[in-house]
């Protein structure tokens, strides 16, 4: 069993406060020990990043691009060796780990290797300006130029630790920033393993630093540190509010990707194809990382004449899933990340049952030991006011609600504090497109849960602030400077 240090200034740093155990959610065994941060560890990491950022920002974009390309090469070559560790600390199934963790991380570094050389100057047409008490008149030229923010604190989520890290770090590095990463406490080990790999790829020491901790203290110290210019966070809305408040005291830039309560709306014109697509999409709440996905369509809103058909289809889907050891190829659903998260999911189901919801599938703990397993659960006859219909559960629970017309559907869909990702299913895509305009959501999928890698990603309302994805991420990790001159 490995006891890790922090990765600071291109080297392992022994933690002042010792270590804490990282537990495999499927076996409940300790897979490694992560370093516990003290304030001095956070300060050292920020100091390291500040010292390295100036030189990295002046590195020619093509050279930054070459480093990011080499990082992608190293991850593609060596990621397979780390797959067992990644699977052990996350509890993700073999299918999810092998297809959506390392390959997606590689793709993101490749994308932002190209991004490093994207044009960062927006020329503005010269304008004749009259003389004033301020300055003589003349033909005035201008340009808007993207500049690095500086030091970015990246606080990542536990569901896809490496992928989420890549989505933040790659565009930040492409723009010439240095980063201090604070992974989620549940599964930080592979994030720590990236330090030596990035160094091997030629990233200068100090540009990438990783610090960890078992509680909130490490993240709080990173957010509050005066040497950090921006915080990029993925996680719960409750923590996002705390970060926004703390960052606001020092006017730090923030990029916050927070909670979701996605609605999949099945319109009244849905034909067999659209209904089948909707059932498969909503079923991904169970089959894709056990519902631990912020964009998951955890609410299915169905036109009343189609309601029981969709509920029955989802019931059959849930009952067909194989739960068990995530390393087995036949397993579709693995465990939740922790006992605490499993207990939270079960409490939500119990409350929904007490409020009058009908448990169509699941609802009881699977007879699987050891491991933090929760059954794929479908709750029908749910009303918009129930907690299960309003609060993010972040587990394998779907709630089904009926509506009578599109006005009611839009009202229900928009009735939660969240607005991250919604979905519309119907035979007439023009009608679905028009309905999407009524949804207070940063993203809307029409007859699909597939993502577009270049589309801006972020939420409305309590689902966050800012956008990343594609070239939008380059804007997120940069400041805009206006240059003005007299022609």
Automatic annotation (TrEMBL):
Q: MF terms per GO, please? A: oxidoreductase activity, acting on the aldehyde or oxo group of donors, NAD or NADP as acceptor
Question: What keywords sit in the KW lines?
Answer: Oxidoreductase
Q: Does the keyword Cell membrane apply?
A: no
InterPro entries per the UniProt record, alphabetical:
Ald_DH/histidinol_DH, Ald_DH_C, Ald_DH_N, Aldehyde_DH_dom
Q: Residue limits of the Aldehyde dehydrogenase domain?
A: 12-482
Family in the record: Belongs to the aldehyde dehydrogenase family.
Name used for this protein in its record: Aldehyde dehydrogenase
> Which organism is this entry from?
Streptomyces mashuensis
């Amino acid at each position: 069993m490995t006891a890790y240090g922090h990765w600071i200034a291109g080297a392992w740093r022994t933690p002042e406060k010792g270590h804490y155990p990282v537990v495999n959610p499927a076996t409940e065994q300790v897979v490694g020990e992560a370093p516990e941060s003290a304030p001095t560890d956070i300060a050292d990491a920020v100091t390291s990043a500040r010292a390295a950022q100036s030189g990295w920002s002046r590195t020619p974009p093509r050279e930054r691009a070459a480093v990011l390309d080499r990082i992608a090469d190293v991850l593609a070559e060596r990621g397979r060796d780390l797959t067992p560790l990644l699977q052990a600390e996350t509890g993700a199934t073999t299918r999810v780990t092998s297809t959506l963790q390392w390959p997606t991380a590689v793709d993101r570094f490749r994308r932002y290797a190209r991004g490093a050389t994207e044009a960062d100057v927006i020329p503005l047409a010269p304008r004749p300006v009259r003389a004033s008490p301020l300055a003589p008149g003349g033909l005035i030229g201008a340009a808007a130029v993207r500049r690095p923010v500086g030091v970015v604190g990246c606080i990542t989520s536990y569901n896809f630790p490496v992928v989420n890290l890549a989505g933040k770090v790659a565009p930040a590095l492409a723009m010439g920033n240095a980063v201090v990463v604070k992974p989620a406490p549940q599964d930080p080990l592979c994030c720590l393993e990236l330090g030596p790999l990035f160094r091997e790829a030629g990233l200068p020491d100090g540009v990438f630093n990783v610090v960890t901790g078992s509680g909130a203290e490490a993240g709080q110290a990173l957010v509050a540190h005066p040497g950090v210019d921006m915080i990029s966070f993925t996680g719960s809305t409750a923590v996002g509010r705390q970060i926004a408040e703390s960052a606001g005291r020092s006017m730090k830039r923030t990029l916050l990707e927070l909670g979701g309560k996605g609605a999949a709306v099945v319109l009244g014109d849905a034909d067999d194809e659209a209904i089948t697509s909707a059932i498969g999409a909503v079923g991904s709440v169970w089959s894709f990382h056990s519902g631990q996905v912020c964009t998951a369509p955890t609410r299915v809103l169905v036109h009343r004449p189609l309601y029981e058909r969709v509920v029955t289809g989802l019931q059959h889907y849930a009952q067909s899933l194989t739960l068990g050891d995530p390393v087995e190829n036949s397993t579709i659903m693995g465990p939740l990340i922790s006992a605490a998260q499993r207990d939270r999911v079960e409490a939500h189901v119990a409350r929904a049952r007490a409020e009058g919801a009908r448990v169509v599938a699941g609802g009881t703990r699977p007879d699987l030991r050891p491991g933090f397993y929760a059954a794929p659960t479908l709750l029908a006859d749910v009303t918009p006011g129930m907690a299960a219909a309003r609060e993010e559960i972040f587990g394998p629970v779907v709630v089904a609600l009926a509506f009578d017309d599109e006005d009611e559907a839009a009202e229900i869909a928009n009735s939660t504090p969240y607005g991250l990702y919604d979905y519309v299913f119907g035979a007439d895509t023009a009608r679905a497109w028009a309905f999407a305009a009524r949804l207070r959501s940063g993203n809307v999928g029409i007859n699909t849960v597939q993502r577009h890698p270049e589309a801006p990603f972020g939420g409305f309302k309590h689902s966050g602030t800012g956008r990343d994805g594609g070239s939008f991420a380059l804007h997120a990790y940069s400041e805009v400077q206006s240059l003005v001159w007299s022609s």
